[in-house]
Specification:
By secondary structure, this protein is an alpha+beta fold. It has 5 helices and 3 strands, in the order ααβααββα. 53% of the residues lie in helices and 26% in strands. A hairpin with a 2-residue loop joins strand 2 and strand 3.
Length: 128
């Protein structure tokens, strides 16, 4: 199993984890990613939390291993606790995206995250 597949296996249960464990996993995945895509799913009622989550994930992507990554995880824990208190949850996966730039075609690791209502995620899971 390749590294991205292993990370995606871990991410499948992200919504079941406590915020501290979610943050640790998201920091680990963010350290692998070079591009972030955050969407709001069906929840557009808390744009400030979405902006804070995007900022926290970008901070985790840019953090150097060690103290910087620990600080990024702490910030992410705070944001994840707020999302949970608002009845929101995050789902995520890592994949590759191809970008055609000045130096030609490049494949970059992409962290895709979706912020959605807990109830809507439960409805989707029941329908599947």
């Amino acid at each position: 199993m390749n590294e991205k597949a292993a990370l995606n296996d871990e991410l499948r249960s992200l919504h079941l984890l406590a915020p501290v464990s979610q943050a640790a996993l998201l920091v680990k995945v963010a350290q692998e990613a070079r591009v972030l895509h955050l969407s709001l799913g069906d929840s557009r009622r808390e744009p400030m939390v979405a902006r804070d989550l995007e900022s926290a994930l970008e901070g985790a992507m840019d953090a150097a291993p060690g103290a910087e990554a620990d600080d990024a995880a702490g910030h992410l824990v705070d944001v994840l606790r707020r999302t949970r208190a608002l009845g929101l949850q995050i789902r995520a996966e890592i994949s590759d995206v191809e970008i055609d730039g000045a130096l030609g075609l490049a494949r970059l690791p992409l962290l895709s995250a979706v912020l959605s209502d807990v109830q809507s995620h439960a409805r989707v899971a029941q329908a599947a």
